[in-house]
Amino acid sequence: MRSFRIQESFYFPGREVFPVIVVSFILLVVGFVALVWGADFFVDGAAAFAHKLNVPSFIIGMTVVAMGTSAPECAVTITASLRGSNGMAISNVIGSNAFNLLVVCGACALFTPLVIKKSTLKREFPFSILAEVVLLVMGTLGLMVGHIEGIILLAIFVGFLVWMIRSAKKAMSAGEAVETEEIKEMSNIACFFSIVGGAAAIVIGGQLVVNCAETIALTFGMSETLVGLTICSIGTSLPELVTSIVAARKNQAEMALGNVIGSNIFNVLLVAGIATAISPIVITRYNLIDLIFVIAVSLYIMALVWRKQELRRGGGISLLAIYGLYIVYICLRDIL
After folding, report:
1. What is the torsion angle, in degrees rounded to the nearest 10, for the CA atoms of residue 142, residue 144, residue 150 and residue 155?
2. How distant, in Å, are the alpha carbons of 111, 149, 221, 293 from that of 326?
3. 322, 296 Cβ separation under 8 angstroms
4. Distance of alpha carbon 122 from alpha carbon 220, whole angstroms
5. What pLDDT, in 10s, does the model give residues 199-235?
6. Where are the alpha helices (DSSP H) in 221-255?
């Protein structure tokens, strides 16, 4: 009944289905734009406000800015979870991680080798795989990630942030270079409107994306899992793809792989943690298969970059090919 009401809100008696699909796609695009726009404004306002409180730039980068990049995925996943669209909620997280690893890294490697720091390769990369394994174990044990599991994921996320901040402080005290964020100067009023307006756009965008994605899924007979793995995950990850490709073309993509790893950690621990802490998510057999696939891809990329600490064009092509095969697979299994 819930899904029927969503479709009915877009349907007008006496008209064909085609106009409904057109409107849904247009509103879907509007929703994605609102998510990206809202995340940018929210991050700018929150970062500027934190800077006024004399919070160090590198801490702002690791918290406010880093979490802001996961805002679109978070909005879509939480909205889907609250509406009971479990397949779309968990699939958006898994699909975003797969897209980041295979498409973002693969596309950037076509332009220039992606360099990864040894410290990232030995710490953050294994930790991202561990986070995915934890989510897999949680889903396998009860075929559901509930409130308690969500709180555990959030607790691990907080521990991860504390660890990263302490590591950065230790590096700074040792005289090592630590990346800092460029914070925009904003007045208190501008900060307020950026935070409130950005948050509102994120919420509205998330609602539009989930509603329209469900309508499209119903019309074409697609499952929520397929929609989450494709439409939602690709749409919420497009900003990272565009930004990374532009940086790669300017030979400034040294940190692209590290950023992807960080984004994937945030998706599993923060996004999935908040969503499941609010509303339990049922895990299906296909969700487990997709999660195992993401873990296998992470291990494959680690093997590619382990010796020379960089991802070259050949590896990038293989990643894009794997993603193409994966899309074919999930489409076929949805049909069959």
Report:
1. 30
2. 23, 28, 20, 9
3. no
4. 44
5. 888 888 888 888 888 788 778 888 888 888 888 888 8
6. 224-227, 233-249
Among the listed residues 217, 276, 242, 221, the one whose alpha carbon sits nearest the alpha carbon of residue 90 = 276
Q: Give the tokens for residue 262.
A: 């960080």
Residue 72 and residue 205 in contact, taking contact as beta carbons nearer than 8 Å: yes
Distance CA 2, CA 291 (A): 27
At 90-143, the pLDDT tens digits run 899 999 999 999 999 999 899 888 888 887 888 889 999 999 999 999 999 888
Would you call 285 exposed, middle or buried from its count of C-beta atoms within 10 A (0-12, 13-18, 19+)? exposed
- For the beta carbon of residue 257, count every other beta carbon within 10 angstroms: 29
Amino acid at 254: E
Tokens of 145: 């990630």
Would you say 277 and 82 are in contact if contact means Cβ atoms under 8 Å apart?
A: no
**Contact assessment for residue 275 and residue 89, using Cβ atoms and an 8 Å cutoff:** yes
- How would you label 165-195 residue by residue, b for 16+ Cβ within 10 Å and e otherwise? eeebeeeeeeeeebeebebeebeeeebeebb
10-residue averages of pLDDT along the chain (336 residues): 41 56 87 85 83 72 69 84 81 93 92 83 91 95 89 94 82 63 79 88 86 81 85 82 74 69 90 90 91 96 90 94 96 86
Reading the block at residue 203, the tokens are 């919420």
